[in-house]
Every structure is written in C-alpha cells, then in structure tokens.
Amino acid sequence: MKHAANFLAAYEMPRPVQLRRNLFAAFFPLMKLLPARFMLDRAVDEGLLKQGGHIIETTSGTLGLALAMLSAIRGYKLNLVSADSLIDDVMLRRLTSLGATVNIVGDPGKTGAQIERVNALQEMRRQMPTAFWPHQYDNPHNRQAYGRLTEWILDRFGQVDCLIGCVGSGGSLCGTGGFLREMFPQLTMIAVDTHRSSLFGHVPGPRLLRGMGNSIRPANLWQNMIDEVHWVGALPAFAATRQLYRDHAVYAGPTSGAAALVAGWYAQTNPEKKTLVILPDEGHRYQATVYDDHWLALQQGWPLPVPSGPETLERIEPRGEEAWTRLAWCRGSTEDT
Question: I want to staple 58 with a disulfide (CB 3.0 to 4.6 A). Which of 81, 267, 300, 319 is the partner?
C-alpha cells in the first residue's frame, strides 16, 4: 500500500519540456491525480471519508481514472457517472478493471449531458447518503491542490510571465495562476476553451473536442483572473497534437495540443516573455482517434494545416470546429464582455 501510494504521489507530477527558447511545458501523465488525491486527503482530515468508505462523482474520464487509481490502493468503493458521448471503451475498461462501477447516461445532443449526469449522481446520493462527493467543479480543494505544481514551477523555471492552460473545472489554471500571481502580480493568464462551451459565454452545444470546455460554469473558474480567452476548435487541436508529437516527441492528448497551439503562438509573438503551458495528459487514450489517420480522414474539414494564429474577436462569438479565435478578456466576466 505504501509503495503504491508513493508511486501515485510521483505519478501526479509533470515532466518539464522546453518547446521554444522562451516556452516551457509542464507535461503530466495524468494531471487529475493531483486534485483527486488532495480532495480525498482533505475529506479524510475533515471526517467526510472513512476507511473503506464510498466515493461518488461525475466525470468525463480522467478525474474518474485518478479516483479509481486512488480508490484501488486505499480500499474505497467508487461509483462514477459519465455520458456515452464522453467515455470510450478503452477508458471504461481501465475504470472497471480498477474496481469502479460506472453509470453511463445517454447524450444524444453530444453536449456532455451535465444535467442528466448530475441528476443521476443526486439519485446516488439519496441511495448512499454517507458517500463522499468530491464535487470537483466547486470544491475549493481542487484549486488548492495546485500549490504543489506552483512549487514545482518555481523550482524549475523561477519567475514566469505568462501561464496558459485549458479550462474544464477551472481548478488547474485558476489554482496555479492564483498562487503564482501572489508572487508575480503582473502574470498574464490565458484560458484555452473550445466552441460551444459555456465557460466564457457560448451557448452550450455539441463539441467534438473532449477534456476541456463545459456546459456549466464551475465555481472553481474565476473569470476575473483571466487576461485572454482562446477558443480552439477540434480540428486545429488535432493538427497541433500531431505536430507536438512529430516535432517534440510529446505524446499528448488533444487538450494538450490545443494549449500548446496557443502557447506557441503567444511565445512567438511575445519573445521577451517567459511562458509556461500546462499539458494535462498523455495521448494513449486517443490512439484510435487523434493518432489514427483513418479516423481523422472521416472528420469533416480534415485535413487542416496547423493555423499560424487566431482570429481576434471584438465580442463573444462561437465558430466551427475548424476555427481558432481569441478575445481580450481583461480580467472581466461574461456579464462585462
């Protein structure tokens, strides 16, 4: 047990990658292990989770995998709720092999089925009233978990001028950026979202790119920390993911590709700035999709060359899966923009 815990404590941390002279990456094998472990530890401290206890959560996959790994070595029971548009057979087998029970709801609109998933989870809570719900979207321990990443960044890179990361729950970007900004108030924070995600004002709708974006606005997303928002469609994210592997041997998922695309452009246009980008997971889950040429050829609009830069918007405006746009957010809110 102790050795397994030590392994996961090491596995939750990233590896450093230099992508350009002034661009560095924190490349995680599974970033969600960091908040998952921190939220469970705090629940134990607060008496919310007992030895052999029960955990329930909704997930699109990676937080669920992190909870399943921790539950397996700590002896917790785990029930997860996901949607058929979010979870693939490979991830499902990994979860169930670790002992998790997965309840999958239908999502014909391919929007992520947030309401249906929450309804299913609330029904579980009624049936299992003592179960612990990490509630990653609103739990402040999600953001606070990234203090360990902040220490890692400072040890390796010192002061950074710009932090770039994808947004789903808001925990990684707002958590890490919040700690860094306490020391470097001028830090620029850039959020990477996707079209038809409600995080920064789009009306939620079908999204091809998974692992980022959301159909709700979590409490852990603090919009007033963000200087600039980029919306990256699935196709430029896929192209950037393949380029990241081809040019740097970084075998990452498409959310990492989207973040690297934005970071590469920012670092090139701001050569005097030291930029740090968070790459949240590896690409093994996407061997049959993003890393499969046949699957890519079936996607409408593919092939698409890696774009050289985004289209700058004057107002919030969703586009198609082939588009990459940006908007100066100026530490405001959806209501201000």
Answer: 81
